[in-house]
């Protein structure tokens, strides 16, 4: 299994950052590559098992299922159900932790996925840089950083 990872310090209190990140339907508020999001069936965005349909800036779509929502550890985990990536499985987690020395938030985002070995370097760039790092930069900007 391959792994992609990115992290960032967000200069805002961990509770405020978690409130924004926690919204499984809220990516368009802070991720510049996400044009829109919709919870299929219209249910709540914090219901484990719900599926969000993301429309990307280029018009492509990705469907993702929420599999864990943990308010104590400030993290959620989701699987890609359908998307344009050459993967057989994909499970990702985003987590918000306190930076105790400053009162800021440390956000990390990673995935483990199964793909052909030849595709892994390109997928790592796509996920680590194009999805996670871009999203974390957008999150930092959302909080004025």
Can you give a write-up of this model?
The model has no long low-confidence stretch (mean pLDDT 97). This protein has 145 residues and is of the alpha+beta class. The chain has helices spanning 14-22, 120-142, and strands at residues 2-10, 34-39, 51-56, 61-70, 75-82, 89-99, 104-114. The chain has two helices and seven strands, in the order βαββββββα.
Overview in brief:
This protein is an alpha+beta fold and 145 residues long. It is 22% helix and 42% strand. The chain starts with a strand and ends with a helix.
What layout of secondary structure does this protein have?
Layout: E1 2-10, H1 14-22, E2 34-39, E3 51-56, E4 61-70, E5 75-82, E6 89-99, E7 104-114, H2 120-142
């Amino acid at each position: 299994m391959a792994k992609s990872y990115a992290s960032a310090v967000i200069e805002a209190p961990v509770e405020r950052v978690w409130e924004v990140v926690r919204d499984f339907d809220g990516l368009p508020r802070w991720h510049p590559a996400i044009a829109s999001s919709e919870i299929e069936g219209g249910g709540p965005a914090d219901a484990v098992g719900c599926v969000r349909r993301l429309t990307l800036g280029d018009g492509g779509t990705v469907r993702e299922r929420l599999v864990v929502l943990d308010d104590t550890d400030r993290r959620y985990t989701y699987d890609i159900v359908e998307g344009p990536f050459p993967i057989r499985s994909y499970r990702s987690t985003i987590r918000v932790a306190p930076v105790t020395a400053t009162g800021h938030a440390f956000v990390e985002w990673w995935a483990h996925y199964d793909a052909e070995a030849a595709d892994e370097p390109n997928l790592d760039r796509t996920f680590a840089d194009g999805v996670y790092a871009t999203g974390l930069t957008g999150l930092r900007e959302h909080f004025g950083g």
